[in-house]
Amino acid sequence: MHLRDLQKLEGVLSPSHLEEEYANSLRQSKMNIRICQPGSKSDDVENEILFGNNQDAALQINQKEVRWGLLEDTLEERLEKAVWTLKNLRLKVKKGTLRRQRSMDVEKSILEDLRNRVQLNSLVLPSVSFYTFLNTHNGLNCSSISHDGSLVAGGFSDSSLKVWDMSKIGQANVQGEHESSTKENVMGSDEGKRPYTLFQGHAGPVYSATFSPLGDFILTSSSDSTIRLWSTKLNANLVCYKGHNYPVWDVQFSPVGHYFASASHDRTARIWSMDRIQPLRILAGHLSDVDCVQWHANCNYIATGSSDKTVRLWDVQSGECVRIFIGHRSMILSLAMSPDGRFMASGDEDGAIMMWDISSGRRVQPLMGHTGCVWTLAFSCEGSLLASGSADCMVKLWDVTASAKVVKTEEIGKAGNSSRLRLLKTLPTKSTPVYNIRFSRRNLLFASGAFIK
């Protein structure tokens, strides 16, 4: 409307004023506006599913084939086979190929971790190492831990990323700050003694950070709608990925590296490659923010959790939605995939955790116990345990084997008792909400959070 029209409306103070000519003209000028205009038949079906008007349509979409089996000859599988088949614990190299010393050291490290892996179950629980951030002054938005637990990263509201090397904690000679620019920075003696490496480049708060499988790269997402790739070896920003139109809430590396996925306020998730600055796929379909994203174990699918209270599973090749998981009563904040690729866990704002069967798209079991937002989930390496971290300052361990069993009709009324049976252990922290949880290759459980007074 024009300013003059607005000024006329401000003069409407009593019912008698509505009888004036201008008010009558506004009342008679009516327009029919469609809140949602389906672009295709498939979109219409998905909208009906989300509002619960057509359960048959939901079942129809969930009938699509999902190949949840694992890929063959992955790096860890080759190395694990080498542990048992090669006497000298060395992988065979084709004639004429040169092997870098760095890759050999990485493979030896992974071999050592696989040899020393502890098989966890309901009777054998993992050892836990908790990293606590102090004096963050409510500025810590996210944290991430490398696969071996040697590096811990934190994303802050001042647009910075800080990375701590656990092997250098307490040492006098530690690495100083490094800017993303190529110009060398001149630092004072006090700045050079900081126990972390500072990465700067974002123009807004950092909302997510994730390490590559080998720990040599870090991805961060920010409110400035960009994703940045950092090198932990060069301590520098390598690439800035632009594509989202609004803040990016989450970013995750694929299990094999190189590819990654992002979730944004623009209601889309996107698939990227490290060597391309434009997204390879745009996954659109959610009716609200896409808050979290997680890769399937075989890298063929991506799961997204949204504020529209649903979880969707997408085919990476076609970009189509092949599963819609309905059951949460609040926004989904965390996702985790089982190592065998069969099950998925999702945590929401109300503290509920849902276990899903990916092949059928049905909910297997709810895990009730948290009283705050479930911010992080992680399966153990063999998939027998599920760890959850929440804003209620608790780390909980769940028996996935028992949780995967279908609930009998007579047990529905005993949901509280069954949840307690599946809950193996509760680990309280000292006023520290749990931001991130990760199982190492040795099945050690790493967790991190910021201490609040």
UniProtKB/TrEMBL annotation:
Gene3D superfamilies: YVTN repeat-like/Quinoprotein amine dehydrogenase. WD repeats lie at residues 133-167, 199-231, 241-282, 283-324, 325-366, 367-408. GO terms for cellular component: transcription factor TFIID complex. One of its GO terms (molecular function) is RNA polymerase II general transcription initiation factor activity. Keywords: Nucleus, Repeat, Transcription, Transcription regulation, WD repeat. This is Transcription initiation factor TFIID subunit 5. The keyword Cytoplasm does not apply. CDD domains: WD40. It is found in: Nucleus. It comes from the Eukaryota. One of its GO terms (biological process) is transcription initiation at RNA polymerase II promoter. InterPro entries: WD40/YVTN_repeat-like_dom_sf, WD40_PAC1, WD40_repeat_CS, WD40_repeat_dom_sf, WD40_rpt. SMART domains: WD40. Transmembrane segments: none annotated.
